[in-house]
Automatic annotation (TrEMBL):
<feature type="domain" description="Acyl-CoA dehydrogenase/oxidase N-terminal">
    <location>
        <begin position="7"/>
        <end position="119"/>
    </location>
</feature>
<dbReference type="InterPro" id="IPR006091">
    <property type="entry name" value="Acyl-CoA_Oxase/DH_mid-dom"/>
</dbReference>
<feature type="domain" description="Acyl-CoA dehydrogenase/oxidase C-terminal">
    <location>
        <begin position="235"/>
        <end position="383"/>
    </location>
</feature>
<keyword id="KW-0274">FAD</keyword>
<dbReference type="InterPro" id="IPR036250">
    <property type="entry name" value="AcylCo_DH-like_C"/>
</dbReference>
<feature type="domain" description="Acyl-CoA oxidase/dehydrogenase middle">
    <location>
        <begin position="123"/>
        <end position="223"/>
    </location>
</feature>
<dbReference type="InterPro" id="IPR009100">
    <property type="entry name" value="AcylCoA_DH/oxidase_NM_dom_sf"/>
</dbReference>
<dbReference type="Pfam" id="PF02770">
    <property type="entry name" value="Acyl-CoA_dh_M"/>
</dbReference>
<dbReference type="Pfam" id="PF02771">
    <property type="entry name" value="Acyl-CoA_dh_N"/>
</dbReference>
<dbReference type="InterPro" id="IPR037069">
    <property type="entry name" value="AcylCoA_DH/ox_N_sf"/>
</dbReference>
<dbReference type="InterPro" id="IPR006089">
    <property type="entry name" value="Acyl-CoA_DH_CS"/>
</dbReference>
<protein>
    <submittedName>
        <fullName>Acyl-CoA dehydrogenase family protein</fullName>
    </submittedName>
</protein>
<keyword id="KW-0285">Flavoprotein</keyword>
<dbReference type="InterPro" id="IPR013786">
    <property type="entry name" value="AcylCoA_DH/ox_N"/>
</dbReference>
<comment type="similarity">
    <text>Belongs to the acyl-CoA dehydrogenase family.</text>
</comment>
<keyword id="KW-0560">Oxidoreductase</keyword>
<dbReference type="InterPro" id="IPR009075">
    <property type="entry name" value="AcylCo_DH/oxidase_C"/>
</dbReference>
Length: 385
């Protein structure tokens, strides 16, 4: 089936990204893997390449486009090469939508030029120890000072991807107590400078997968946040978070599909090269049947991911549709990658093979951005159940 989601511009970008990955990432990726993060200077290279500015208005140094298709190409190309761009994904997929939606003209002039170049890397701090998916249960507070010039931020966050190297973090905090009839009320968003006194990065978390993206615990002790760094209106943070969840979940869905597609490619190459009992593994009927079944699942996931991408670009992707895409694509990727690892035999369990890293990286897709169980709840609610 011929795909219609990408045009010539996207394919030209694909060629550029593929060459960049081969030159700048593949030769040093083992070093990043061992270090547990991409080097900070790598993000400047991504800035120079223009990947951070695609969806940023031209007046702030970006390309002024309004599409997620170039991000989609990056998902496919990094998965294809068995690498990642470190923690930079949250910079564009998670942080930028809030800046475009909520930042004032004055804030955009301060934030976006450095965002585009990679001079300031951004992260999003929502999850707290003990709250997980229950965002409304957060305990971090931001209290307005008596003179009204700043907020005083206190609390802790965890599982913050990009948090070790972030220069600014969009922090969700309570500015008011929840209402009896609305526990989601009272959350606000702040663009917090990581150099602020009282702001600290705790442990860099030791994760099962996604080894090259830095994930951290953050702590705030009487951090002064200027009122000029409040994003949007006070107490409306939960509403803002809900606005961007469909795009976040699309990103996870598309990334998972891309990983499944890459897994089939890795397995296909391996079984043609590896011999057992004097024959290539690809010669056996079981191998053919397994890969054929995996390919069929990838084809279906591609269609779902592409459809969600078109809806997202058109501004029509609903919460239930995004949940459905995430649920389907992440569950498909789980099955496909597991079967492709099996075809590698014992070597599939070795980190020197991309399939092993892919297996570990993929597991979190059914957890973050909302678990598969949460996705099912959202879909069921949309069905009137």
């Amino acid at each position: 089936m011929r795909r219609t989601v990408f045009n010539e511009d996207h394919e030209a970008f694909r060629d550029t990204i593929r060459a960049f990955i081969e030159a700048e990432v593949v030769p040093v990726y083992d070093e990043w893997f061992a270090a547990g993060q991409a080097p900070r200077e790598f993000y400047y290279k991504l800035g120079e390449l223009g990947v951070f500015g695609i969806n940023v208005p031209e007046e702030f140094g970006g390309a002024g486009l309004d599409t997620h298709k170039f991000e989609a190409v990056q998902y496919e190309e990094t998965a294809r090469a068995g690498v990642s761009f470190g923690g930079s994904g949250v910079h564009v997929l998670l942080a930028l939508p809030y800046l475009k939606m909520l930042a004032t003209d004055e804030q955009k002039k301060r934030y976006l030029p450095k965002f585009v170049t990679g001079e300031e890397m951004w992260a999003l701090a929502m999850t707290e120890p003990g709250t997980g998916s229950d965002v409304a249960g957060m305990k971090t507070t931001a209290k307005l000072s008596e003179d009204g010039t700043h907020y005083v931020l206190n609390g802790a966050k965890t599982f913050i991807t990009g948090g070790v190297q972030a220069d600014r973090v969009i922090v969700c905090a309570r500015t008011s107590a929840p209402r009896e009839d609305d526990r989601r009320f009272g959350i606000s968003l702040f663009a917090v400078d990581a150099k602020s006194e009282g702001y600290s990065v705790g442990r860099k978390l030791d994760k099962l997968g996604l080894r090259t993206s830095d994930t951290a615990e953050l702590a705030f002790v009487d951090v002064k946040v200027p009122v000029e760094d409040l994003l949007g209106e006070e107490n409306k943070g939960f509403y803002y978070l809900g606005q961007n969840l469909p795009s976040e979940r699309w990103g996870i869905a598309f990334g998972a599909y891309a990983q499944a597609k890459a897994a089939v490619r890795f397995a296909q190459q391996y079984v043609q090269e590896r011999t057992v009992f004097g024959k290539p593994v690809a010669h056996f009927q079981n191998t053919k049947f397994e890969l054929a079944a995996c390919q069929a699942e990838v084809d279906a996931a591609e269609a779902v991911a592409d459809r969600a991408l078109e809806a997202l670009d058109a501004g029509e992707l609903t919460a239930a549709e995004a949940a459905s895409a995430k649920l389907f694509c992440t569950e498909v990727a789980h099955r496909v990658i597991d079967r492709c690892l099996q075809l590698h035999g014992g070597y599939g369990y070795m980190n020197e093979y991309p399939i092993a890293r892919l297996y570990a990286d993929n597991r979190v897709n059914r957890i973050y951005g909302g678990t598969s169980e949460v996705m099912k709840s959202i879909i069921a609610k949309s069905m009137g159940l």
